[in-house]
Amino acid sequence: MNNILPWVNAIACGLIALRLMTFSRKGEQHRPLIAVVAYLIVVATASVPIRFFFGDYPIHDISETVLNVTLCVAVFAVKGNMARMFRGNGKNE
């Protein structure tokens, strides 16, 4: 189990970064704060597979992997739209 955990974590983080980098607004309003948050998430998650493949990611555990896989599922569920993720169900209340 210990050998697969870093792979799952690195793949999940790589997928998060790729999905956020390929998001297209398609005419929606630009939100600078959401863009900054998305950028920070891309930088943080993209560093994990890079560091893992270069052997500079020595510490990994099940809780970090579960969090990253959960974030990966959430990012794909909203199709990379971080504003929709923060907004919730998308309905104005």
UniProtKB/TrEMBL annotation:
Keyword Transmembrane: yes
Keywords: Membrane, Transmembrane, Transmembrane helix
InterPro entries, alphabetized: Phage_holin_3_7
Residue ranges of the TM segments: 6-21, 33-54, 66-83
Pfam family, one: Phage_holin_3_7
Name of this protein: Phage holin family protein
